[in-house]
Amino acid sequence: MKLLTSFAVIGLALLSEIQVVLGAPATTCKTPKHTSTPKYTHTPKHTSKTSKTTAKHASLSLSAKVIITSATSKPLVSPIACPAPTVSLGGGGPFATRQGRMFNIQSKTQFFAGTNSWWLSQLQSNADVNTVFSQLALTQFIVTRVWGFSETNNAAAPQNPNYFQVLNSTGQYFNCDPNNGIGRLDYVVSTAEAKGVKLVIPLLNNYGDLGGIPAYTAAFACNSTSFYTDTQCQSAYKNYVEFIVSRYKASPAIFSWELANEPRCSTCPTSVITNWATSISAYIKSLDSNHMVALGDEGWFDTAGIGDGSYAYSGYEGVDFVKNLAISTLDYGTFHCYPDQWGYNNTWPNEWIVQHNAVGNTAGKPVVFEEYGSTNTADHQLLMTPWQQTVLQNTSVAYDSFWQFGTQPLSINPFDNYAVYYNTTTGSDYQVLGYQHAAAMLAKNPVANQ
């Protein structure tokens, strides 16, 4: 999900304890050749309302990684790590694992429900974080998805309340500050451990919200398509992957690492994303053999015999769900669904769910209905209940998680019209789509339906 989110920032970031290192010279990035042109038009699904917050930034402690290139060698990387977390990390039970087409959590293999709360790592109030995790646990959501990335190109004027790295022409720096840097993600992971909620952590955003690929392209001169193959952009990305994965690899709160939120390479050959996913997932496994890895994609098809060739089945976004699910170092597949933004009617998601379940069955891997929702706030329950019932009754989809969890009040307002707000009132959207559905998924017989 792309978030058109604007954070109003008050105060000046004072840069302290900075290790300044010159970055590699810019290189020319080549755009992959496009082998096809779309035979349709579509509107991107990402039209969320703007949210605002104010946050005062304390002085920062930045740490850098050196990126050095030469004409004859690969980039050499010298890591300089942030201090160890000051909160408790690394306890709370065994790691989540894949078990056939399902997942085993706390030594129990079962179906379950989850949600998305991307903004948890942007909260600067511990009380807010505690409240959210308490509500997630009460709902019996087993997993929530939280952004593990936040980049800026300018530490003096960051676009986000909290940011974890700075990318610019002088190098790559990690923000070690406990108040608006990696310490905020530390607290989220620690609280998840304490509350027994698992975290899916994407390590990159396809979009510019919280930095994402555009932050890399602004710093290192690649572009949105060459990012996946450009040596310098990939070195910086892998530096960050190492930083985050190594920091939390001992935590059982981590359900999985995701390579990115909704990676796309529009009109590229699908091999670009497949090759990148193969390489990066293997790299993450080399850093952390305890946790699962997923791509984090929307589940686009580009396979003969599936679908009608329209947008979602055309390969236009450079993603082939079938080929990607076959990657041995990806533990499960993900798919998203926003019919109102993709040009489909509101019953089509039921077909989309069944199609991905069938591919998962053939591959013998779990598939997860990771994002779905509607901006029609008056009809959330009417529209989304049939989709949940398809997951529950007609498939072996391992879990589903609507976009997105909402609660009030918080110290920031990161919510869009997709948000389903926490509410215990009988018959409310949240009580039906959250409480009731989570309970039904947990009660589902842990035997694959089909």
Automatic annotation (TrEMBL):
Any Pfam family matching the protein: GH5_mannosidase
Top enzyme category: hydrolase
Keyword line: Glycosidase, Hydrolase, Signal
Residues making up the signal peptide according to the UniProt record: 1-23
Domain Glycoside hydrolase family, residue spans: 185-376
EC numbers on record: 3.2.1.78
Annotated spans, Disordered: 30-54
Catalytic activity, as annotated: Random hydrolysis of (1->4)-beta-D-mannosidic linkages in mannans, galactomannans and glucomannans
Highest rank taxon of the organism: Eukaryota
Gene3D superfamilies: Glycosidases
Protein transport listed as a keyword: no
Similarity comment text for this entry: Belongs to the glycosyl hydrolase 5 (cellulase A) family.
Protein's name according to its UniProt entry: mannan endo-1,4-beta-mannosidase
Source organism phylogeny: Eukaryota, Fungi, Dikarya, Ascomycota, Pezizomycotina
